[in-house]
Design goal:
The chain has helices at 22-40, 44-58, 62-65, 67-74, 78-84, 95-103, 117-127, 151-158, 173-182; strands at residues 9-12, 108-113, 135-138, 166-169, 186-190, 207-208. With 223 residues, the protein is of the alpha/beta class. It has two domains: 4-20 and 90-214, 3-Layer(aba) Sandwich (Rossmann fold); 23-87. One of its GO terms (molecular function) is 5'-nucleotidase activity.
Length: 223
């Protein structure tokens, strides 16, 4: 799926790509509505409806991913609530082995995530994923999500990479499309970001089921 001899930089999404999206799905659709219902004294169905409507209205925006926004909107400390179910945070199958292989390779490995800093820090604490990569960038530092085409030149200014020798692996098809517009040549999606939900509909890019299919990572041949 990838000619590693031609790759210099690997950009990796976090949630749904390296980490099982089940944690986030459970938090936003089950845990948060339940805690909101308890705090506000409303029926669980009403709490779920209010949160779902807000999620749908903001989908794809930076606010959608912003824990500070959600805390203000709901009148709750959402960052703290995410810790309550932190035991559900885990890697997708064989992601650690892939990260170890990248660490030992010739590639620069960079996580590019829409996660808010509070959520990112929690996942770093739980998984130690930061030890396997060269850098982590959250889109909140740039003021635009990955779905916004203007994000990619901003990232490039901070994290120089050659789009022609860069691969992006991401479960977000809109983000992949924006990166493609910028010129990132090698793009892979994820077949099943959430281990407890159905696979994603087929997109325009090859869908990765297991990272082991990308191994071994072959270094460039000496000139």
């Amino acid at each position: 799926m990838i000619d590693w001899e031609r790759i210099q930089t690997v950009l990796l999404d976090m949630d749904g790509t390296l980490l099982d999206l089940h944690y986030d799905t459970y938090f936003w659709l089950t845990h948060l509505p339940a805690r909101y219902a308890e705090t506000r004294g409303v029926e669980p169905e009403q709490a779920s409806r209010e949160i779902h409507e807000t999620i749908q209205s903001l989908k794809g925006s930076l606010e959608w991913y912003c824990l500070d926004f959600w805390s203000n909107r709901l009148g709750m400390n959402v960052s703290q609530l995410k810790h309550e179910v932190g035991d559900r945070i885990r890697f997708r199958a064989d992601a650690p082995a892939f990260l170890r292989a990248l660490k030992a390779s010739h590639c620069r490995t960079v996580i590019v995530t829409n996660a808010h800093r509070g959520g990112l820090d929690l996942k770093r604490e739980r998984t130690g994923l930061d030890q396997w990569v060269d850098a982590i960038h959250t889109t909140h530092s740039f003021g635009r999500p990955k779905e916004d085409p203007a994000f990619w030149p901003a990232l490039h200014a901070s994290e120089p990479f050659d789009p022609a020798t860069t691969v992006l692996i991401d479960d977000n098809h809109t983000a992949l499309s924006a990166a493609e517009t910028f010129g990132v040549r090698h793009l892979l999606s994820i077949h099943q970001p959430d281990s407890q939900r159905d696979p994603l509909p087929e997109g325009r890019w090859p869908a990765l089921e297991r990272f082991e299919t990308l191994l071994p990572i072959t270094p460039p041949q000496p000139v």
